[in-house]
Amino acid sequence: MVEESRRLSIFERYLAGWVALCMLLGLFLSQYFPAISVGIDSLQISGISVPIGICLFLMMYPALLNMQFEELRKLAHNPKPIVLTMISNWVWAPLVTAFLAYIFLANNDQLIVSLILLGSSPCTAMVLVWGTLAGGNQEQNVVNTSLNTLTIMFLYTPIVSLLTGIQDIQINRVTLLVSVFVFIGIPLVLGFFSKKYITSRKGTNWFNGVYKPTIGKIAMLALLTTLVLLFSLNGDVLIQHPEEMILVTVPLLLGFAIIVGLNLCITRLIGLRYKEAIITIIIGSSSHFEIAIATAISLYGLGSQAALGTTMGLFWEVPIMLGLVYLGKKLNNRGFWGE
């Protein structure tokens, strides 16, 4: 495996701040220039906003460039942390998130769905950065993120459908399935072939050192543009009802604390060493907020509570993950995993 040099870019380092600025800019536009966002969102084909569709695609494509099929052959070498991470991603993270959503967000179906979308979407991109910062096993990191990229294609729709069906929340499951195909399947295929073509022409070093960072910056700009439009279309609702975002934040943060605590205990109980344990905890506790936001917009539209709810997952992602990196190092120094 070729090790990649990873560090936080200025966008990644201050992502929470950029998100906050986009929220404020969107709210400002909603009050003083509402026609701009409405006009952009009105450029539609079959009910799908073309500018937003392009932004969402640009958000997803870079994440799926991390897919490395050849690494999946290493699954049998050390399966214990891989299996534990998959169980966290697809069993207790979705269940804990859905349980808390139903408790704290009763009678608000769109906000419940937003948390279920976040809890059922294991991360496939930023965890590579967090794992490097934490000094974890990067080979396990790449294997796990590659496996997540594949499994999300097949598990995301049935798990979201199952969890929303517990209390008979009505969602368009065809739209959900199409969203996974459009925002995961197509970028995955394009990512695979573009990576193969570019590395054959320019080499792996140029692909990792030039192409991916450039595409990553474009993706971040697309994400921030989407957020500005999202909050500009919802500005009046947010200004009048800011408590909705607080309502989403409470179960979101509580769920994170529960899942992290559970993963910490289990990694220690089964005897994982720090390098494997911290990757298991990071991947098993993070969310793929891009697909959650994209799916929420597809299901309910850009100007929806569900879209805003998933945005809170993005808002808290960076400070929470940086805190987890710090916590993992502190626990390791104190011999939490027996090293």
Give the helix/strand layout.
Elements: H1 10-13, H2 15-32, H3 34-41, E1 44-45, E2 48-49, H4 50-64, H5 79-104, H6 109-119, H7 127-134, H8 138-164, H9 173-202, H10 204-233, H11 235-240, H12 243-269, H13 274-285, H14 289-300, H15 305-333
Antiparallel strand pairs: 1-2
Helix pairs in contact: 2-3, 2-10, 2-15, 3-10, 4-9, 4-10, 5-6, 5-8, 5-12, 5-13, 6-8, 6-14, 6-15, 7-8, 7-13, 7-15, 8-9, 8-13, 9-10, 9-14, 12-13, 12-15, 14-15
SSE order, as H and E? Answer: HHHEEHHHHHHHHHHHH
| Overall strand count | 2
Structural class: mainly alpha
Domain module count? 1
In percent, how helical is the residue content? over 70%
Task: Work out the oligomeric state of the chains in this entry.
Answer: single chain
Read across the widest sheet, the strand sequence of neighbours is 1-2
Overall geometry comes to: globular
**What does the radius of gyration come to?**
19 Å
